[in-house]
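Take a look at the protein record below and flag anything odd:
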Amino acid sequence: MSTPSATPGAAPGTPSSAAAAGAAPDAASAAGRTPVPDGAPGGRFGSLGPVGLVLAGGISVQFGAALAVSLMPRAGALGVVTLRLAVAAVVMLLVCRPRLRGHSRADWGTVVVFGIAMAAMNGLFYQAVDRIPLGPAVTLEVLGPLALSVFASRRAVNLVWAGLALAGVFLLSGGGFTGLDPAGAAFALAAGAMWAAYIVFSARTGRRFPQADGLALAMAVGALLFLPLGIAESGSKLVDPVTLGLGAGVALLSSVLPYTLELLALRRLPAPTFAILMSLEPAIAAAAGFLILDQALSATQSAAIALVIAASMGAVRTQVGRRRAKALPEVPQG
């Protein structure tokens, strides 16, 4: 999900998933992916190796999404989003302790729009997975960041990657979304558009706020925006101990744990490698949907997901090659 060079928490020496992903989806976002602040605990996590940390983070995000789907009968899609954003916001505010004074009106405007984009992205995605399987939902959502990268790059080769992605969408839709709920597919595509907006305003917020302060404040904005919606849909169910506990689990699996793992990985892993690994998330989502939710995919749907993954990887490699070419010094002629 060209992409920004900074996100909240992307202080010098602290790369982030959106920044590192280049042309690829930072994925979770599908679920609001952004790293936790520097100084996140390492401990035994570091012994997994950087690639293992990224894969563990991706598994955590998508299995967290699967847990969210299983929680929806208890709390509803809007209620689950409310619980996830609220718990994640509390954790981030406690960890970051952002400074509230000394920011301009433009700073606050940026962080509010970032929070709106984050809340909309999460809300639309959870509406999607309430209607269609997790794997196809993540695949359709990935198209937003992919389109942002292709359009920003303005290179002819990116038309190839766009064509691959469109072919994957055509296969996934069965030629007209006859195999998927049309509303669910529309929600997933809309979530992808908000993911692209999230990336843009994540970068702007990162330039205006130190460390992860902007992220913590934006997450609080998103949680406050969604709170009335969650109360309207779920009411007292949100404070049911079991529902609250499962919601906290979704927040930890989909936000806190994966961002910590990604932050640790990015300290030792080249950004292009990280971006390519992130492109595998539709496949991880499909596996999580199958194992947790018994959502089996047809051969055609599996091929469609593979095409979108290939398009994401190709776009990443194109962006990386372009940056390397620009970095090479000119050789004097003659």
Remarks:
- The radius of gyration is 19 Å.
- The chain has a mean pLDDT of 75.
